[in-house]
Amino acid sequence: MKRFNHFDATSIEDAVSLLQKHKDASYVIAGGSDLVGCLKDKIWMAYPEAIINLKTIPGLKEIRTDEDGLHLGALVTLTEIAESDIVKKEWAGLAEAARRTASALLRNIGTIAGNICQENRCWYYRYPNKIGGSIDCVRKGGKRCLAVPGDHRFHSIFGQVKKCIAVNPSDTAPALIALNAVVKTTTRDVAIDAFFSAEMGSQSTVLDRDEIVTEILVPHPAPGSASAFRKLAYRKAIDFAMVNCAAAITVEGGNVISARICLNGVHNNPRRCQESEALLIGQPLTDALAKQAGELAVAEAKPLLQNIYKVQMAKTIVADTLMDCAE
Known about the structure:
28% helix, alpha+beta, four-stranded antiparallel β-sheet, 11 helices, five-stranded antiparallel β-sheet
C-alpha cells in the first residue's frame, strides 16, 4: 500500500472541505471494507493522496423512527440494521438484506452508506496491480470490456452500460429500492431509484466527488404492506450475490394495490421490475401470478454464454420473494 495523508474529519463540513481541497485525489472512509481492498490492490488509475475518516464525525450512527419513517445514519452498520427490532418490525426486507450481506465480521464494520456506494464488481476491474501490472478494462480507461469475450459467469444478463457488463454488488440496494427510500447527502435528497448510475465511470452512484451520504430515509409502509428479500450466492454465508431480489407489496381487500420489485447482481445498476409490478396490481397474489411476474422480470434479458443460468435464477427468485411477502 502506498503512502497517503489521513484526516479525521470533525464535522460533515470539515469532510467536504477536505474533499474539495484534494479534489479528485481523495476518498472518504467509513467501515473501509471496500476501500481498504482497493487501496491494497491499487486498482485505481490514480492513487489517492488523502483519505478522510468519517467515523470521527458525531451523529451519523443513529437509528430512529419519526413521522416520515425510518432514519438510518450513514455510519450505521449492517449488523445494527439486521439486529434492530425497529427495522425487523416494519422493514423486514431491509433487515434480512443486511443480515445476508457478507460475513458477520464484515457486517460489524460495513456501513449502510458504504454498502450502497461500493464500486461495481468484476475480476478484471478489481485485478490487483501487482505481478503483470493492472488490467486496463473499459472501466479503467481501456477500449473494451474484457469480460465479454472472457470470464463473465457472474456478469450482467441485461446488456452493457458504456461497454461494461459488471454488476452492482449491493445486497441492501434492492431492499431500499423496494421500500422507496431516499438518500440524503450533504447537498440534496436523492430518490433511491435515481441514486445508482453506472454511467459515472468507476463509481456506481450519482454522487459528486465532494458529496457525502449523511442519512437514508425509509418511509413507513402502508397498512397491509409486507417486504421480503432473497439472495442466491455461490457460498451462502459470505459471497456477493449471483442474483438477489427484494419486494414490497401492499394488499387491500385481498388484492395487490401497490408493488415494488428489484433485482440485483444482474445488471450494472439495481433493476426495477416495473412490468412485473404492473401485472400484480388489482389481483390477489397467488403462486401462479408470482411465477408470471418472474417471467416478465427476465423478458428483456440478454445473457451471454456463461451466465445464461442467471436468467432462471432471476425468474425464480422474483416469484419466491413475492410469495414470502404473501406469507
